[in-house]
DNA sequence: GCTGAAATTCTGGAGTG
DNA sequence: CACTCCAGAATTTCAGC
């Protein structure tokens, strides 16, 4: 990675686990003044190294009692479906969306209030992908032990 | 959820997408003074509604060019393996770890510098779970479109 | 990348309904 | 009891070096 030094990487590694750390404390950790850290963080945001910041929330407190993975097997395996994927990514229920190797190329993680919503969402996926969608496998999340480098302690939700 | 009102849920929904928002701005959005928001956020952290805060980082900037899902089929399906799962969750390479329904009960997402590390990690998993581990399926992440409610724009990394 | 000063935010206590 | 207000502390921010 050009233009990125070890201090930038330190900053990224810290922010990944402590997204709300102050610039002052971050400066102390990496050995820079608050102003310099700010410049670096702004650079990293501009470069796209930092996509955003997120709190790790227990979905139960938002009455989202059902979380599920949707594994999609698509007929097409190229970038022609990217526009559809971006549309799916924008949906409010969708927490994460990945393209990966293997048969079930698309993995979606989403949160719902109840199982009816899961069914409705699966239907929405079928409509959005149309005949490109060969198969959908749904699995329900039972425990979350770690999410985005943040430990979820007991794993109970 | 007892003791949680609509304003708390608003706060959680906003923090999920904007983890680094100031308490002042958060207060404006939900119609409360900064001090009140602070009290509520502290309450939500204490209750475990907020597990932590995380920046969404493009792994390439940390020279983590290989990201993978590990889907584990375990011989045992109860909570006796929870201690092992917690040990796996603590590993530095592990970004997320879930227990879910279906045959491949455990899903791990992890980041690596190269494919050798992937192989080494798979070996480590086998050692940790021992004879409880029936099968490991590894898939490589090609694109990340959304991560923890944060859009990753182009999906390119 | 640092310094220093100004603007903003944070924070804890006292006061209000 | 949760909220607001307010003042002091800390942080952020921006200028100039």
Any chance you could write out the topology, listing elements then pairs?
The structure is a homodimer of 157-residue chains.
Chain A: H1 6-17, H2 23-30, H3 34-47, E1 50-57, E2 66-74, H4 82-90, E3 94-100, E4 106-112, H5 115-129, E5 133-147, E6 150-151
Antiparallel strand pairs in A: 2-4, 2-5, 3-4, 5-6
Helix pairs in contact in A: 2-3
The structure holds a DNA duplex (17 and 17 nucleotides).
What would you say about this model in short?
Two copies of one chain form a homodimer. Chain A has about 160 residues and is an alpha+beta fold. The first copy, chain A, contains five helices and six strands, in the order H-H-H-E-E-H-E-E-H-E-E.
Q: How would you describe the oligomerization state of the chains in this entry? A: homodimer
Report the CATH C-level class of the largest domain in chain A: Alpha Beta
Largest interface chains and counts: A-B, 63 and 63 residues
Which residues of chain A form runs of ≥5 with pLDDT under 50?
Answer: none
Give the CATH topology of the largest domain in chain A.
Alpha-Beta Plaits
Number of helices of chain A: 5
In what order do the strands lie side by side in the largest sheet of chain A?
3-4-2-5-6
Helicity level of chain A, as a percent range? Answer: 25-40%
Distance between the termini of chain A: 38 Å
Structural class, from helix and strand content of chain A? alpha+beta
- What sort of overall outline of chain A do the alpha carbons produce when their principal axes are compared? globular
Average pLDDT of chain A, rounded to a whole number, is: 96
Within CATH, the superfamily of the largest domain in chain A carries the name: Lrp/AsnC effector binding domain/regulation of amino acid metabolism (RAM) domain
InterPro entries (chains A, B): ArsR-like_HTH, AsnC-type_HTH_dom, Dimeric_a/b-barrel, Tscrpt_reg_AsnC-like, Tscrpt_reg_AsnC/Lrp_C, Tscrpt_reg_HTH_AsnC-type_CS, WH-like_DNA-bd_sf, WH_DNA-bd_sf
Pfam family, one (chains A, B): AsnC_trans_reg
Domain HTH asnC-type (chains A, B): 4-65
Keywords (chains A, B): DNA-binding, Transcription, Transcription regulation
